[in-house]
C-alpha cells in the first residue's frame, strides 16, 4: 500500500480494493505523480460515487494483454516484453519465476497501476485504468507485505466501510479458518505493529475473502506461513471463491494444484507451461 499511502492518505479508502499492492516506491516512483494527477483530476471534475456505493460488479469475461511492453526508466532492459495473453473468467493461474522476472510488473499492469509503453491491457474488453477497475469489477488484492490499519480487527476486515457494518458470523468464520481466534474489537496496534508477519498476512487474506471477490490476486501472500497453514489458506480461498478468477504469484508450489494455467516469467518474457510439462 506504500504507493498511495505516500501520495495521499485520502485516496486509501476509495481505492483499497485495487491498490493494496505493496511494492517499493523505487519501482513506481516514475508513475506515481502521473497516477495521482489522474486521480486528482477525476475526483475534481467527475462525480465519484460514495464508498458505500462502490460495490463492484463481477468480472465476467477476460483480462487481455495485447503486445504489451513496459520498462522502468532505471532499467536497461524491458520489465515486460511483447506480452500477449488472455485470462478468462474462472481461470486459476499460478504465476512464477525468479525475483525481478516481471511477475509484480505483470500484476501492476493488470490493475492499471502502470501504463504500458506499448500495447494495451483490457479488462472485460475495456482498457484498464485504476478508476474503471475499481468501479467495474469486484477485485481483491493481497500483497506480501499487507497493509494493516491502525484500529481493531473489525476496522481492518470491513475497510473501507465502517466497522459497525461488519457481518460478525462471517468474519469470525474466516478468522477461525486461518487460525485466528480473535474478537472483533481486538486492537492490532499502530499499522498492525502488534501482529507478526504471518498474522498480518492472514488478516489481509480474511479482509479480501470477506469481499467475496470475483477477481482475486494473491501476490506472495502466504510467504510467512508454514506449510500446513498455507494449505489451509488455499482450501479456504477455493471454498469462498469457487468461481472467481484467481491469480497466484508465488515461489512455492503449495495450494496451486487446483490451478488450470501456469505462467513462467523470465527476464520479462512469458512462457505458459501446460500441466504435463509442469508435472515433469
Task: Give a written overview of the molecule.
It is globular, with a radius of gyration of 18 Å. The model is unreliable at 1-32 and 41-55 (pLDDT under 50). It contains ten helices and ten strands. By secondary structure, the protein is an alpha/beta fold.
Essential attributes:
alpha/beta, 6-stranded mixed beta sheet, 20% strand, 280 residues, disordered N terminus, 35% helix, single chain
Order of helices and strands: HHHEEEHEEHEHHHEHEEEH
Which bin fits the share of residues in helices? Answer: 25-40%
Counting DSSP H or I runs of 4 or more residues, the number of helices is 10
Q: Which structural class should the secondary elements be placed in?
A: alpha/beta
Low-confidence stretches: 1-32, 41-55
